[in-house]
Structures are given as C-alpha cells and as structure tokens.
Amino acid sequence: MTTNEKTIALTGATGAMGGEVLKSLMESDNNFKVRCILFSAEKRIPSFVSKLLKKYRKRIYAFRGDIACPEDCARLLDGADYLVHCAALIPPKSDHNPHGTYLSNFVGTKNLVDEIIAKGNTVKYVHIATVAVYGNRSFPHVWGRVGDPIISSDYDAYSQYKLKAERYVLDSGLKNFVSLRQTAVLHKYMFANNLKDGLMFHTSWNCPLEWVTDVDSGILIRHLVEYDLNNKLDGFWNNIYNIGGGKNCRLTGFETFEQCFSVMGLHTKKIFKPNWNIARNFHGVWFYDSDKLNEYLNYRTENNEIFWKRMGKKYAIFKLAKIVPSALISKLIIRRLFKNTNAPKYWIKHRIDGRVKAFYGSYEAYEKIGTDWKGYPLLCEGKTENGEIDYEALKNVKNAKALLLEHGYDESKPLAKLDFADLNGAAGFRGGKCLSTDYGGNIYKKISWQCRCGHIFESAPHTILKGGYWCPKCCEPKPWRYGAIADIPFYAQVYFDTHTREEVNDVYPLSEHEDDFIVNK
Question: Which residues, other chains included, contact 321 with Cβ-Cβ below 8 Å and sequence gap of 6+?
C-alpha cells in the first residue's frame, strides 16, 4: 500500500479541533482518505465543515452515528490505518449534561479502543486528551509536565470522564498509541460560544494558560501522520505529550481577556469586576515540556495575537465595540449572562452553596475579592496575596525547574530500568505500595498496586508514573472528594495552593441534585 492510499478515521470533525484536522489532512500532498463519523444528535453541521465535505467528497467518507454505539465505531474503523479521536462533549455543554459527557468522553473512547483491539490491534491510535486532567493550578505551581498528579476540578464532568477515558487507553494494551493532552484552544467558535453561557466567568484571573490555535492543532495531526509515514518519529509512539503553543502563548486568564479586548480597543478592567470570575477550581498550566512535542511535529505557526487579529476580521462585534462605550458593552453583553445557571453571580444570588464553596472557598471569600481592581493582586502585574514577585522571571522556562512538582522516583532513570524499590518509592509518595513481584521492565504491562485505603488495582507503571494516575476509586471520585487524598504528598503539592486544611472533608456530590454540598462527612 502506498502512502497516498492511507486512510485516517476521524471523530469530532464538526468540532473546533476536529474540523481543522480534517482541513489540514485534505491539504496534505499525500492525498489521504478520511472516514468521519458525524454525531447523529447534532442537528447542524458547521458551514466550515460542510464546505470541506463538499469540496473533498471523493476523499471523505462521512456518515451519521454515535461513538457510544459499538457498531458505529466498527463502521468508522473499517479499513482505517490511523484513528484520530477528537470527539468530546466539552464545556459549556458538558456542564449541563453530565450523562451525555460520560457517553461521549468515556464510553465512546472505550468502544473505539475495544474495536481496534478486536480488529487485530493494527490501527495507530491518536488520543486527544486534555489539560483539564491536571485540574486547578495556581501560583507558585504554574508550571506542569507529564507525570504530574491527575486531579479533576470539582463539578467538572468534562475532565472527570476525559481522565477516565485516557486511563483506559493507557492500560488497554494498544500496540501503537499516543495521548496528546490538548491545552486551551483558541478556535473560531469560542467567541460566539462564550456569549451564550456563563462559562466565560470560569477563567480565573491568575490561572496560567498556555494556548494553541485551532489551525496549529490541525497542522499537528497532519504532520504526525506525514512524519510517521516517512519514518521520522523514532521513539514517538506509546507516550504522553502536552500540546501547547509555547513561550509566546503563555498568559494568565486576565491577560487572555485583555488580549481579546485590545483588538476592540477596550480593556478588561473597564468591562469586568474582579469578583465576577471564579477564584479557583478551574484548569490550566504552563507546559514545561510542550516544546518536546513541537520538536517532533513542528506544528507552531501562530500565536495568540495572530488569532485575535483573525477574529477581529471575522466578527463584526469587534469593529462595533470600537465605537461603543465600555460601560454599555459590559451591560449589554457581559452582565446579561449573570442570569445563566453557569455564572457565579447566579450561584451567589440563588445561594447555591456547593458551587460558591468549590469556586471561591466561601461567601466570605467572594465578598473579600470585591469589585475594585486597585486592591486585586493580579499575577501578571507582579502581585500575589503574599506580596510582589518578578512575573517575567516566573514565566521564564529557565527558572521553571525549581517550581516543578515531585513525582516520587528518580526520573533520571528510564522507566524500563526502574526496579521494585523505585516502584515502591513512587507508590509510597502516593500513599500506597506496589504489590507485584513480576515486573520484567515492561512499563506497559499491568501490575498490582495498593492504595492507603486498601484498594487493590492493576495498572501499568507507565500509567502511574508517566500518566500521573493512582487508585481509580480514590482518585477518580464520584462524588468529588479530593480533600480526602489532599494530605498524600503527591497531591498535597497542588491542593493546598488554593485550599485550606479545613476543607479536606468537603464533598461535592455528582447527582441530579449536584449542587448539594456536604461538609465534614
């Protein structure tokens, strides 16, 4: 079979990343063929994707289906050489539909993996994971890397099932896989999406965000397949990587808003108040190791500024905002979203205790933030609650090593060279121990572990040490009760950056009454 006969199965083609992947694959000189499954419950296909389906109809086979249905997964993978799995229910839709998120983000992934194995385990699988699996990160631990603790943010059904799905991939026995933890994506639909939901208030002002554009994400996947076919990816497969835009795409939440508004000639402080946005319990981190993936795939062609200029040409509101007063923009566009059930102002007004507690710490903490920017410590301005810092030095990757989290083992040794003393050391750092004695250096072979609560589980050393996973019962909680593991050294490194010792018994149930809140139980 020649390279131009290769077939790529693609999920999520109507999404922000999937659509760009489809476009980029069609632009390849390799003349790839693509099989797409279009979610049957989705009524409208974006015009961007519809044009691609029409233009390349001889090379794209698309059908309606649902990856939660095994038969549809089998149909998708028929004759495929690669599978690129972009499909997922993401915020804000995932915030309002936890069960649909479970079906899309976990069940769909499981079905695809099972089908690859059933078909002989020859398809090369590209899994799009997410930065959200790292949970809330804040100063001083703004830098992250593969192997850091996997800990979902409370109430985040999206990350809850994405981490469950990635773990299934890592422990599945796939012969050729790669998990790409996608960072926050600047995409063509984000501005419109944020005007429909309270999600925009979920970006903490000081959270570290390393962006990447939708266009570069598409180029990344095209290069992955092209380079693999040309034998340029030695050592690439069967690993986990962080997708990030690099140095010029690392900002805080506040800087991200400011960059967007600057295209309109506006400023964040004129439109928002400090306490409108959550104080914690989000997700985002600057990737210490995202350059590693770019060294393999050479995908970075854009930065945030280029993206926002592109959006300025696309949306009329960017031009309109230049002649409309900031106060009116704030009133007509931003404040109207206070009534949305996903908005913090809604939680405060309706006394939704669980949400307020999870995202602010308390009603008192919310009130303390206030509405005056003069008293708010913006990290990008070199201010923290405990004093001033050199923000540019903080952002310099050369200084990041001292701020990285510990993983509990000697990382200078290759995983395959670790002995049981090393594995037990890593397990002890996670509050447990390694039970197996038959290891053999196979980092992808599942072995037995025990957590401090006595749960015995099987997982590969690669999944635990490089994936950042631990006990599936304690660390994939349903309900969310991460305070229960907060004193374990591996997790304490980040949990107490934004939580107090008094919160370790807090529980946030996931149920039809998911805003119920239980304290000290």
Answer: 264, 265, 266, 329
Q: Angle CA(330)–CA(256)–CA(24) in degrees, nearest 5?
A: 115
Instruction: Determine the pLDDT at residue 263.
Output: 84
CB 258 within 8 A of CB 267: yes
Task: Please check whether residue 270 is in contact with residue 315, taking contact to mean a CB–CB distance below 8 angstroms.
Answer: no
- Three-state SS letters, 79-123: CCCEEEECCCCCCCHHHHCHHHHHHHHHHHHHHHHHHHHHCCCCC
Other beta carbons within 10 angstroms of residue 382's beta carbon come to 15
CA distance 230 to 223: 10
Cα 206 to the center of its chain, rounded Å: 17
State the Cα–Cα distance between residues 163 and 477, nearest whole angstrom: 11
> What secondary structure letter does DSSP report for 190?
H
Phi, psi of 299 (to 5 degrees): -105, -10
Q: How far apart are CA 31 and CA 422, in angstroms?
A: 47
Dihedrals phi, psi of 479, to nearest 5 degrees: -80, 180
The beta strand positions in 395-489, using DSSP E, are 433-434, 447-450, 456-459
| Model confidence pLDDT, tens digit, residues 29-44 | 999 999 999 999 888 8
Q: What is the token pair recorded at 12? A: 């999520």
134-147 burial, b at 16+ Cβ within 10 Å, e below that, comes to bbbbbbebbbbbbb
Write the single-letter amino acid at 282: F
Tokens in use for 129?
């994971």
Which residues have CB under 8 Å from 466's CB, separation 6+? Answer: 146, 147, 239, 240, 415
| E strand intervals along 183-319 | 185-186, 208-210, 212-213, 239-243, 250-252, 286-287
Element (H, E) at 159: helix 157-170
C-beta of residue 123 within 8 angstroms of C-beta of residue 117: no
CB 136 within 8 A of CB 281: yes
Nearest-angstrom CA–CA distance, 440 and 446: 11
Calculate the alpha carbon distances from 521 to 453, 481, 505, 506 in Å: 17, 10, 6, 7
- Say how many Å lie between the first and final Cα of the chain, rounded: 61
How far apart (Å, rounded) are the C-alpha atoms in residues 249 and 186? 10
- Distance CA(429)–CA(432), nearest Å, equals 7
Count of alpha carbons within 13 Å of 353, Cβ hemisphere only? 9
Contact 506, 164 (CB under 8 A): no
Q: What is the DSSP letter of 496?
A: T
Query: pLDDT of 315-362, one tens digit each?
Result: 776 776 677 788 888 988 899 999 999 999 999 999 999 999 999 999
Alpha-carbon dihedral sign for residues 480, 485, 490, 491: positive
CA distance 212 to 127: 17
Q: What percent of the chain has pLDDT over 70?
A: 96
